[in-house]
């Protein structure tokens, strides 16, 4: 098969094949300046022209602007013949075209082209001059900043005869110029502020969101005077010695949970709820405390009742807060009945409360003692029911202690 008889479909594919077969080049940017573009291709004539489809050659000269536009003056020569009689026809075509380039991607630049010109057909009966307008699509593959392969497809419309021809063109473009190097604008002068108002300028502030009023170091970060990793504002145990592992509150281990960290705890076995001093030792009870228990017993009985528990618990809780204390439970009665009987009953009732403290609330037995005073220590008149009720009582006397 000769080149002149190449099917139209193969001609239409030639441009794409040329670019797709191109070897990859380093990234390039198309230069601006004067251009020259020799090329070859094929012209597919409208059937009404009665002309054979033929190869052509072309030459273009133009200018590539720094913006997306370019202008080109193109010359194309086609040697064809009339289908009916085989007479040679020579075609000379001139056109002025504009190109608009789209965004470059991996050295490929698509473009749109349109223009107008004149073609002269050397026919047997004389020359036929026709005005043609054209529109088309194309792409460039950059080999460097100054050279590129080109492929395009155009539709050419004859304004007189209304025929529409197609032209496929492959070319090589060379640009006499260079890539425009647009200098970047000078950076705006830096204005150094203090966004968090901590007294450290933003350029040096490594902690740019410090809360207002926070004491900060030279880097703009919250102070941590004891260097335990917890800033002063959150440190509940300031002054922790170096090397002590702390929690997120800045406090070291507290094995007995008495709120005094181990490194300051002189008494490491003082467990809650015992009250301790700053050294972690039991707080001494400095004066004797008397607690009157609001307990009532059934008539002529010393048996415990469920409603005694809250009152006994008050005494037990107090003794747990002061683990070094001891309690003396005093039983009292009114004057109703024989004195000896009342003495014995007061002792039994005091013993009942003592037993509850030991058995029900786990107060050590050696911390609990009791005594009965019978009717010998009234606090009100026994002549009235109200007075007698006041005299029937149990009092817990918790002794002061000074030893730790």
Description of the molecule:
The protein has 404 residues and is an alpha+beta fold. The chain has 2 domains: 3-178, Porin; 289-398, OmpA-like domain (60s Ribosomal Protein L30, Chain: A). It is 13% helix and 33% strand. Strand 2 and strand 3 form a beta hairpin.
Q: What's the layout of helices and strands?
A:
Layout: H1 8-20, E1 32-44, E2 54-64, E3 69-81, E4 88-101, E5 108-123, E6 126-142, E7 147-158, E8 164-178, E9 289-293, H2 309-321, E10 327-332, H3 339-359, E11 368-372, H4 385-391, E12 393-398
Parallel strand pairs: 10-11
Antiparallel strand pairs: 1-2, 1-8, 2-3, 3-4, 4-5, 5-6, 6-7, 7-8, 9-12, 10-12
Keywords:
four-stranded mixed beta sheet, disordered N terminus, rod-shaped, Porin, alpha+beta, 60s Ribosomal Protein L30, Chain: A, 4 helices, eight-stranded antiparallel beta barrel, 2 domains, 404 residues, single chain
Oligomer: single chain
Roughly how many Å is the radius of gyration?
55 Å
What portion of residues is helical?
10-25%
Q: How many domains would you count in the coordinates?
A: 2
Main sheet specs: 8 strands, antiparallel, barrel
Describe this structure in a few short sentences.
By secondary structure, this protein is of the alpha+beta class. It folds into 2 domains: 3-178, Porin; 289-398, 60s Ribosomal Protein L30, Chain: A. It has helices at 8-20, 309-321, 339-359, 385-391, and strands at residues 32-44, 54-64, 69-81, 88-101, 108-123, 126-142, 147-158, 164-178, 289-293, 327-332, 368-372, 393-398.
């Amino acid at each position: 098969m000769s080149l002149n008889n190449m099917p139209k479909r193969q001609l239409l594919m030639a441009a794409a094949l040329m670019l797709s077969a191109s070897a990859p080049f380093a990234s390039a940017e198309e230069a601006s300046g004067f251009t020259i573009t020799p090329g070859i291709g094929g012209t597919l004539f409208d059937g009404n022209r009665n002309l054979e489809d033929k190869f052509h050659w072309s030459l273009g000269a133009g200018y590539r602007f720094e913006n997306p536009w370019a202008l080109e003056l193109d010359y194309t020569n086609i040697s064809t013949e009339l289908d009916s009689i085989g007479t040679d026809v020579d075609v000379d075509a001139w056109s002025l075209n504009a190109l608009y380039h789209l965004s470059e991607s991996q050295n490929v630049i698509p473009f749109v082209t349109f223009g107008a010109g004149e073609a002269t057909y050397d026919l047997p009966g004389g020359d036929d001059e026709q005005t043609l307008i054209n529109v088309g699509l194309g792409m460039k593959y950059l080999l460097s900043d100054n050279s590129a392969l080109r492929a395009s497809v155009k539709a050419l419309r004859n304004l007189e005869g209304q025929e529409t021809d197609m032209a496929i063109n492959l070319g090589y473009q060379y640009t006499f110029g260079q890539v425009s190097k647009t200098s970047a604008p000078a950076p705006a002068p830096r204005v150094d502020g203090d966004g968090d108002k901590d007294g450290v300028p933003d350029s040096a502030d490594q902690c740019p969101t410090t809360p207002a009023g926070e004491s900060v170091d030279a880097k703009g970060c919250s102070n941590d005077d004891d260097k335990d990793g917890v800033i002063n504002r959150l440190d509940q145990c300031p002054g922790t010695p170096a090397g002590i592992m702390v929690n997120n509150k800045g406090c070291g281990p507290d094995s007995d949970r008495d709120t005094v960290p181990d490194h300051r705890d002189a008494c490491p076995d003082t467990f809650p709820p015992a009250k301790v001093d700053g050294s972690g030792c039991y707080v001494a009870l400095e004066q004797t405390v008397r607690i009157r228990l609001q307990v009532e017993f059934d008539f002529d009985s010393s048996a415990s009742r469920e409603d005694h528990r809250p009152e006994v618990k008050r005494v037990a809780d107090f003794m747990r807060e002061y683990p070094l204390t001891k309690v003396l439970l005093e039983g009292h009665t009114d004057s109703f009945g024989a004195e000896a009987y009342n003495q014995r009953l007061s002792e039994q009732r005091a013993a009942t409360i003592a037993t509850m403290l030991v058995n029900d609330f786990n107060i050590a037995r050696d911390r609990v003692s009791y005594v009965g005073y019978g009717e010998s220590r009234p606090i009100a008149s026994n002549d009235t029911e109200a007075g007698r009720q006041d005299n029937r009582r149990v009092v817990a006397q918790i002794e002061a202690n000074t030893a730790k």
